Write a sequence for this structure.
């Protein structure tokens, strides 16, 4: 039996930090819209472009607020976490710029790239600072 990718926000992704959970859910919701789009239509390209523009702005806000929270709790691995965020932003920008120049968007391919990254990041990297906070350093 193959393991199906969970493509919606569920409680397994909760950090217990309300504002971060709200932001993560919003990211899930926007990324999931990509999976529902049909490929190769002018309307699809416009919607993919809208979603990518939203994500481009929203991930900056989310990462900034998440990093401020990690700083506030004195998270000792904040530099590594910031580096992961920075690398993702570069990867996202490269992908978006390539798509902008091609004008062809594959919403399903984008969906799988983005949802896989988000799921792994929340489940692994974000849980590190959640655990750090819960054990009191």
């Amino acid at each position: 039996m193959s393991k199906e990718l969970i493509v919606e926000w569920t409680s397994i992704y909760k950090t217990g930090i309300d504002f971060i959970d709200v932001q993560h859910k919003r990211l899930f919701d926007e990324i999931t819209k990509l999976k529902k789009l049909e490929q190769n239509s002018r309307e699809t390209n416009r919607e993919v472009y809208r979603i990518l523009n939203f994500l481009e702005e929203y991930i900056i806000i989310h990462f900034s607020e998440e990093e401020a929270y990690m700083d506030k709790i004195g998270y000792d691995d904040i530099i590594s976490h910031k580096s992961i965020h920075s690398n993702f932003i570069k990867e996202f920008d490269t992908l978006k710029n390539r798509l902008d120049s091609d004008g062809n968007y594959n919403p399903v391919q984008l969906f799988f790239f983005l949802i896989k990254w988000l799921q792994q990041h929340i489940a692994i990297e974000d849980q590190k600072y959640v655990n750090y906070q819960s054990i009191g350093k």
About this structure: The chain has four helices and no strands. The first helix runs from residue 18 to 35. Residues 49 and 105 are 8 Å apart (CA to CA).
